[in-house]
Design goal:
Blueprint: H1 3-15, E1 20-23, E2 31-35, E3 38-46, E4 49-54
Antiparallel strand pairs: 1-2, 2-3, 3-4
Length: 64
């Protein structure tokens, strides 16, 4: 998946949740998504690679 597709899909899914706010508190290169004033997703491009950073409960993450 290319950068534009990854970010577009992540943005579309994030904005489908109720009360989601899309903002840029860290500058225009960082898309931030919040609910109730709390960040749950951040998208950016770093060294040419698309990144999507999601907040997760450690007990429910795939790392356990």
């Amino acid at each position: 998946m290319d950068r534009a597709s990854l970010h577009a899909s992540a943005h579309r899914i994030a904005l489908s949740y109720p009360f989601t706010e899309h903002c840029w508190p860290f500058g225009p290169e960082y898309d931030v998504f919040k609910v109730g004033g709390r960040i749950f997703m951040l998208t950016m491009t770093l060294r040419g690679r698309a990144l999507v950073n999601l907040k997760a409960d450690p007990q429910k993450s795939l790392l356990n």
